[in-house]
Structures are given as structure tokens and as C-alpha cells.
Amino acid sequence: MENRELTVLQLIVILVSTNIGVGMLAFPRFVALKAETASISATVFGSMIALIGIMSIAYLGKVYDNKTFVGYSREILGEKLGAFFIIIIILFFIIITGLELRQFGEVIIGSLLPKTPIYVPMMMIAFICMLASLHSVNVFAYIHLFYIAFTVAPIIFILLVATTEIDWIYIQPLLGNETTWDGFMTGGFVVTKVLLNFFVISMVIPFMRQPNKAVLASFVGWIIVTILYTLAMFFTLAVFGSTELENLMWPILVLGRLVRIPAEVFQRLDALLLVAWMFAVFTTLYSTFYFSVRASTELFLGFRQRIVAALLFGIILAISLLPKDVYEMYEVIKVVSSIGLFLIIGYPLFLLFIRKVKGSDPINESS
Amino acid sequence: MFRRKRQWKTVNYSSINGKGDKPKRPVHPTLSKNIKDIQSVIGDDHDYNEREIRIVGNRKVVVLYFGSLVNKDSINETILKPMIYIRSQSMDVELKDKELKRFLFEEVIYHTEGQIVTHIDDILHGVLRGKCAVIVDGLSEAILFETKEVDKRGIEQPQGEQVIRGPRDGFIEHLQTNISLLRNRLPIEEFRVKPLEIGEVTKSTVVICYIDHIANEKLVEEVEKRLQHIHIDRVLDTGYIEQLIEDNPRSPFPQIQYTERPDKAVGNLVEGRVVILIEGTPLTLICPATFNQFFQTSEDYNERALMSSLVRMIRLLALGSSLLFPSLYVAVLSFHPELIPAEFAVAVTSGRGGVPFPVVVEVLIMEVAMEILREATVRMPQQVGGAISIVGVLVIGQAAVEAGFVSPVTVVIIALSTIGSFATPAYNVAIAFRMLRFPILFLSGMFGLFGLVVALLLIFNHMLSLRSFGVPYLSPFSPVDWQSLRDSFIRFPLRWLSKRPEELHSYNTIRVDPKVKRKPKEPLLPKEDDRNGKS
Hints:
Chain A is mostly helical. Chain A has helices at about 10-20, 20-35, 40-65, 70-75, 80-110, 120-130, 135-160, 180-195, 215-245, 250-255, 270-300, 305-320, 325-360, 360-365. Chain B has helices spanning about 30-40, 70-90, 95-110, 120-130, 175-185, 215-230, 240-245, 260-270, 300, 305-335, 340-350, 360-380, 380-400, 410-420, 425-465, 480-485, 525-535; strands spanning about 50-55, 60-65, 115, 130-135, 140-145, 190-200, 205-210, 255-260, 275-280, 285, 465-470, 470.
């Protein structure tokens, strides 16, 4: 691989910052809809499911330490079948990026720029993603590392400020009052679906200085993500209660409205927190965008990265404009992410299984 | 892999000085022919001098030099005098050609720097650079002596980088003096001074300084390679070199630092960076440069750690406010007035009562006026400068507000952002930020806080992708380096800055031996006690 400069810390940060994004604003509502007071345990459960995928991807990256997922998919499944799955996964990420972009646009229009047509902010963010996706993997890591302070700190800040508003009744009992097993599972899967972007690391691990530490780094990253998501779930549930939570489109944003700072310098802080959140969204969109661009470039050798990026810019923007409104958007997201759940968690396991069956040892083969 | 390789075009510039690939002319044994050759090239010049004398064996010798470039005393004393003197001592000694050369060079002339050349072109080359040529009849070689002396100013404190605490000397236009300022501070054998000549017409001497065993070899090689690839007719300042060797010429941010202070240059050499000096300018280049360096001054290390850390944070704040204040003002006032306390919002709006434009236009007008004012005062002589600033203060501060042209709060905001940009120690970064204010202003005028974030994302992403000689521009922030972070927006005590910046990949990284403990404090005893204790 070009130059192995990525550190363990950078991989952790990529994983964390990729997963803190659009989904984080909305997920408590969808979990609470299904799991009610059991939402916190459901979040942990959903995150555990994601861990299976993360670990298998990290393990594959460790074993094939100089190949991206495009490379080892083709090695394990053969050229044609490999290419088929790769294209499906790229398509999934293109669609997911488009939908995330739309979600972002809805939030911006809803809370910052009510009179602006929705495609304008979406186009601007997509354009920035396109420009940024022309860079090398190192710059990809630098960008994530740089913005992590802007993203994690405000989220923790909002959550901690909300401590005073907690009502412990809302989160009891931990395993749900009359929550069905089915509701608990579906609630958990919502979290898994939000976390599916972890797959991006499969494109990055071969650029690590020590790919053998990929598994460890991914695990640490997963722990941080789980803690943040659980905290977000905990605070929104404990402050609003599951019944009210079901009515809030973006609960974390509402949580931001509770924040007041001393000296009354700012009347309200939610717009400023939205600024911080925009950085978070950018990093998430950038991750999936970059993943799609790099994977397509690697799959279709001969295509130049900037042409692919420009093409994807158009396609993603078009996809993001397809849903009629925010409700239809969430319906589409529901369908797409359910497919993604099987695809993204199942595919690495499938690869590992085939590899086991074939009994190939890539380390000896490649040497 | 995805970074476009820089393509260097090789253009044949030899036509500029008209020499082309003509073969070199050797020195002819007949003196008059050589003189004729030389005269045909430079003979008509006003400051060209020839002095013909006769030495032992009644041989003719011609000494040539440019009067404007040499120290005539040293030619008189150490070149002409011994040659004539030796003739008066031993009149009729006949020497063979070979012996004569050895005799002259080794026994007669005692000037320090001499070299023997065999071509007319080498003589011209030397004489044009302040050397003095001695051509002897019958010899097919000439002797060149270094006699260059040009007027130079004294060493003064650099105007652009004044300090309250720190050395007062600064570089001047004379290269040798500048090197001596460095060498004086670095009396070690590892200090390297590599000369190069750049500029087809100006033939400027460029010198690469670094410390062996500290500076990374690859960095030195890279600097040298980029310098050697320069093909340009003139190099009048290090600014030319900077623009020709920087990584991204289209970026608004400077990727190479310049300084006039020898102590700063030495500090950077010791950290493992490379310093480039040029004959004829007091400004030296330091490469590679990261963004971190541009809000630091050499004084930060001279003053105590706690205070310099606070000062650095203030500088960063000033830099940030120079970039963001006007656009934040526009965004909040025209898009999100709910962010600021209601009373203040009312006060601002009522202050804008008679202003006919939207906030963004008002701010833009003031910004442009401010930039014009700044530009007008920079180059004015002090007497006129005072008048301009009075006009500026009256027109912009007072009259514009009274005329209902702008609101008083806008004036405050603009003033804050302008002062902020002047608080940045590096002028080139301050100006980059001042100019970037305008696109941010446009975006936030159109999209409020969202536009502001978009602009910030664009700027940060660009900075994160920049590299200066392979060093990421925003290191040590991203990629993070915990050691170098100790010397970023805060400065740890010198004892804790135990390693050289990691991003430079310098050898021999230890700066402070952490094992050596600070000497324990001993109480200062009163005199009587001390005496009693001893006796």
C-alpha cells in the first residue's frame, strides 16, 4: 500500500467520528418507539450486534494486511462473485450517503435556514465531501482526527448539562415494562443500523502502520461509540421519558435547548450546538463518500479518483432528493438499512466462512 | 499516489546571458591576447580596472578587477606590493614558467583566498564576483584572489520582528555577515553551509544551512533538489525562492516561514529544520513550516512558560477573531438573532436604525474601507502616515456613524477583527486570514451559521491536506503528536520540551536529559550563620 502512516489512534478516531453523525440525532426516538424503557439495554444490545461486524472486518483487515475489502473480497470469492458483492456494498453506501445527506438537509432546513430550498445546503455539504475525497488516506485520517474535538466535546457537553433534568422513573425498569422480545430486538437493531458505517474501516486498515493492531483499535473505537450512544440514549430517555420521546423528531437537538450558560452571553445555545453537529455530520458523510469513491476507483481500475468523485456527487445528490418529505425519508431509510443490516454484518462473516472452507492461508500465499 | 507529482519544465535559459554552449576559451600564454579577449567583453565598463606591472625576470603581469566590487587596500597590500617588492630584491632572476607560478602563488603573494584557473571564462566569472585576477605573461594559467568588498549596513534590530526580551541583532543584506551570525551561535562541526547559485541573470548565491545528525537527510535532499530545479532569471529576495519551492502555490497559507532574526533561525536549525539564506536580502527562509509555528515568536521561549502560554492563547484568539468576528456578527444578526440576549439584540437593531443596507453589505463596506486604510498607511512615510490615520479615524470612526452610514456596533466589530489580525506575529499568515475573511463573510451573509461552517470546513480541509516538505501543515494537532503539542498553543517549561518535533523526523531527538534533576534549592543563610557553620 502507498504509505503506511495511519496510527492506531487514527483508526480509533475514524471509527468513532464516522459513527457520530446524522443518525445520532434521531436514533433515540426510533429505539424508544419499539423498546420503551428498555431502550438503554436495547442500545447496548444493538451495539453488540455491530461489534460482530466490526470485529470480523478488523480481523479480515489484519489477516489481509495489504489489501482493502475490494482486494480480499476478490481473493476469497473470486473475481466475478467478489466484484458482484463489492458493487452491491458500494451501492448500499452510495444510497446510505444520499439518505444521510437528506437527513442532514432536513435538520438544517428545520432549524437553521427555514426559507432556503433543501437542495442548497445539501449540495454544499456534498460538494465539500467531494473535494475532500480527492485526498489520500492520510489526509482522510487527519480530517477525522482534527474534527473529533469539535464533535465529541459538544455532545458530551449537552448530555452532561442535562444531568439536572434527569427523572429516574423514566428509565425504569431497565428491561422494559411490557416490552416484547420482538420490540426489544427491533429497537436494538435500530442502533445497529445506525452504526453500519463502521464498514468504512475496511478501506483504511491496509494503510495502517501496524495492521495487526486493527482488531484492538476497532474494539476500543467500538467501546467509545457504545458509551456515547448509550449515554445519548440514557439522557434523552431520562429527561423526556419514552412517551414524549416518541414525539420528538430529533431528541438530542431538543436536549440542546435545555442548555443555558452563565453570564447570559447567549440566549440560546441550540444553534451553536448545531454548528458543532454539522462538523460531525460532515465527517460521517465524508467517510461513506470517501469509502464509495475509493472502493469504486479500486474496483474499476483506470477510473480517476476525481472523475469518480464528481460522478458520485451527482448520484448521491440525486438520491438524496428522491424522498418527498421527512416521513417518506425515514420509511426509505428503514427499508434500506434493514437490507444493509444483513449485508454489512453478514458479508464479513460470509467471507470468513468461505475462507475457512477454502482453507487458504493468505499470509503464506502472498509471501 | 493521488497527489499530483510536480512536473518541472526544463527550459534552456542560456540565451539570456548570450553564452549558450560555447566552448570555454583557455588562457593563452601571450598576455596581450588574453587582455584583448577580456577587454572585448567587459573592457568598456566604467568600473573595470587594469593594472600592469613588471615582476622578476622583467615579465609583464596584469591585475584586473572591478573597482566597485573590491577592497583596493587589500589588492595594494597583499597582491601588488609583494610582487613589485620581490622584483626590487632579486632583479635578474630568470624563472621558468612552471617555477614562476609556484613562486608567485606560494612564496610571494600572501593574500588568503586564491585559486588557479585555466580559462578566460573562469577569469570573467571570478572578476564579475569581486575577485581580482592576476595574469602573467607566458603562463597559460591565471590566479584569482578573493577581494570582494561591498558596502553593507550595520546590524540592527529587525523592524518586522521586534522583541522586548531577546537578542537585538538581525540579518542584513550581506550573506557572509549573516552566516557569521549563525556560525557564531553554532560553534559545532555539524553545522553545514551548502552554497548554490540561482538566477540566470542575477547569479544570486543561495545557501542552505542545516545541522548534520539533527536535520533529516531526506529533508535536506528535498530542499536542495527543489532549489536546483529553479530556472529563473532573477532572485532578488527569498520571497522568489519561497514561491518557487513551496508545495502548493495556490494555497492562501504560507508553507515556508521567513525571519530576520538569527536567534529564531538557530532555534529552528536546532529543531532539525533547514534555513535558506540569499545574498542581498536580510530575510531567510525556514522550511518546513507548520501552521503551529506562525503564531509563535522567539520571545515565547525567552519569557517564562506560564506567561508565554497565556500570550500564545491570546494570539490564537486574536487570529480566530480576525477571521470570524465579522461573519459571526453578520450570521447572528441577520439569521439567528435569538442567539444573543434580547436586550442586546434590541440595542443593536436600534443602533442600525438609519443604516440603509443589510448587515452584510454594511460590514463589507467597512471591511473594504479598513483594508484600504491599512494598505495606505503601510508604505507612507511617518509624517504622512499620521495624517492618513487621523483621516481614517475621523471618517471611519466618527463621521460614518454620525452620517448613518454604519452602525456603531459594526465599527466595534470591524475594529476588533482588524486589531486581531495585527496581533498575529507572522504578517503573511495575518494577511491570509484577513483575505479569507471576505469569502467567509459572503457565505455567512447568504447562509448564516451554516455558511460559516461550510467556509470553515473548506478552510480546515484545505489546511489538513496541505504539506510543507512532506510535513502535514496542521501537525502536531492532526496528525497528533503529544510531544510537540507541548509546544503549540501552550508552551511547556523548557525542561519538559524534552524531544525535538516528531513531525520533522529529525535524528537525535533528545533535547533535554530528563534524568538530570534540577538542583535542589538551598536556603540562603544569613552571613553570621554561614560563618558560624564553617568555623
